[in-house]
Amino acid sequence: MYFMPGSFPLLLFFAALAGTGYGLVFAATITGGSTAANPDRVYAIGNGGAVAYVVALMFVMPMASIYLGRMGAFLAVALAILVTMPMMLAFRARAELPAIDAAGLLRQPAVLALMLMWAGYSLGTGALWSFAERIAKGLEIAPTTTATILSLSALCGIAGTVVAAWLGGRAPRIASMMVGLIGTGISCLLMGFATGAVTFAIGVLTYWIFYMYQYSVFLGVAAAIDPSGRAGTMGGGWERFAFAIGAPIGGLVADFGSYSTLGILGFLCCILTIPLCMPLVARRLANPQVAPA
């Protein structure tokens, strides 16, 4: 991508290739953790490690750019991938995957309910988070203070995964989901209705604690419903797509409403699917042997 800035078709091709590769690694990782003895804990530790790795990369990329120019950032990303590639050798093929019809996953009420909860959650939180810096600017928070708050949010995200890892196998999954969904919803309200640097910081930091916590819980629930990992992979795809389209939706809401309206949108997207979808997921978790073909 670095060597062809003037060719949009080639740039688009290699960007799509990189995205496809990411998706394949993402699917392999989720599938690899789905049949662990405690998938909730495995996913939580993996997500926390991923955040820490990205934070470290954010420090390396500017340093590489200082010495190598614009190419340094591209090389830093490429080397980061090359360094971690040998770890994929630790993935071992299983003797057999659980017999689940991948094409029929969405015909299973519990899987469809989980996907709807996951997508709605991601859409609302994505709509709000896309405007986090603008909310800070509107509150006249100093740019350095905003940068500090957003940097600390990554550490809070790791803290959320630590909590998810500790609770994995200890707390009932439905209770864990309720805590994550409601907690994230409240953090959206705190961010949307922030009145200054303190309330904004509380909203941002609690947002990342609960978001990373809930993301790990979602993956654990998906693994409990579908040990093959297909539901978790599909849910992760829905999550990224919904988070992406949340940004333009958030822009429309902000144009015709306000940042507080965005906070309400995030809160509602987190909790509105609970009454309809949670009972279906709970019923399936209580009877894991009941799986429609």
Count of discrete alpha- or pi-helical segments spanning 4 or more residues: 11
Biggest beta sheet attributes: none
Q: Which bin fits the share of residues in helices?
A: over 70%
User: Can you tell me the overall shape?
Assistant: globular
For the secondary structure, the number of strands is: 0
Low-confidence stretches: none
Descriptive report:
By secondary structure, this protein is mainly alpha-helical. 77% of the residues lie in helices and 0% in strands. The protein contains eleven helices and no strands. Helix 2 (39-68) crosses helix 8, helix 4 (109-129) packs parallel to helix 9 and helix 4 (109-129) runs antiparallel to helix 10. The longest helix has 30 residues, at 39-68.
Question: What's the arrangement of secondary structure elements?
Answer:
Elements: H1 8-34, H2 39-68, H3 70-84, H4 109-129, H5 132-138, H6 143-167, H7 173-192, H8 197-225, H9 230-256, H10 259-271, H11 274-286
Helix pairs in contact: 1-9, 2-3, 2-6, 2-8, 4-8, 4-9, 4-10, 4-11, 6-8, 7-8, 7-10, 8-9
Q: Nutshell version of this structure?
A:
This protein is mainly alpha-helical.
Task: Based on the model shown, name its key terms.
globular; single chain; 293 residues; 11 helices; mainly alpha
